[in-house]
Design a protein that fits this description.
Elements: H1 2-19, H2 25-45, H3 47-68, H4 78-128, H5 137-162, H6 166-196
Helix pairs in contact: 2-3, 2-4, 3-4, 4-5, 4-6, 5-6
């Protein structure tokens, strides 16, 4: 009986220590910081990976709240450790996916700008050879204006590229190429019509 009485306070101390468990704050801070640093580029280049990380953070916050709402002796942060590891892994994946997505967007934008530059050069050369005659002056001026606008759009694409806005650069370069291609189509149609006469 005396042994039992000597052990009882020790058991009580262990129960208190286990019950007063604290959340792994350093690990939580580290995982949250990983998500915050991934956010900026992941929102543009890896939105689905970012969403998975955001969902992991929501699950972690829900678990932390559930533990806080419990009586101190019954709190356990074992599941929290798993959720913190999941958040960190998903945040790191979002960052890696964003880096890969950004690199791909840069490649796509570079290709689009090169294609647009080539299309504009070809369209200008074709315009020089376009048939000139009665009733074509207004059409030629309109085509020149279209090419000038396309060049301006291409210049904006290059500015966006320099600023690291690769998706915007690609969209502008594609618009410039489309304008140049349209002018070439009009010239080809005019040449075919001239042949028919």
């Amino acid at each position: 009986m005396r042994k039992m009485m000597a052990v009882l306070p020790l058991v009580f101390v262990f129960v208190l220590m286990a019950g007063c468990a604290k959340p792994p704050q350093d690990a939580i801070n580290s995982a949250t910081a990983a998500l915050d640093s991934a956010k900026a580029e992941a929102s543009e280049y890896a939105s689905s990976s970012l969403q998975a990380a955001e969902d992991a953070r929501a699950a972690l916050e829900a678990e932390l709240k559930a533990q806080q709402d419990k009586f101190a002796l019954f709190r356990s942060y074992k599941k929290t450790d798993e959720l913190v590891a999941d958040l960190k892994a998903k945040s790191e994946k979002a960052a890696a996916d964003a880096a890969a997505g950004k690199a791909q967007a840069q490649t796509d934008a570079t290709t689009a700008i090169n294609d647009a530059t080539t299309a504009l050069t070809d369209a200008k050369a074709k315009l020089e050879k376009a048939p000139k005659g009665k009733g074509t002056a207004a059409d030629l001026e309109a085509m020149k204006a279209d090419l000038t606008a396309a060049e301006s759009t291409l210049a904006e694409a290059n500015s966006s590229m320099t600023a690291g806005k690769y998706k915007d650069a690609k969209a502008k370069a594609e618009a410039a190429k489309s304008s140049a291609d349209n002018v070439v189509s009009q010239i080809n149609a005019a040449m075919e019509a001239k042949k028919g006469h």
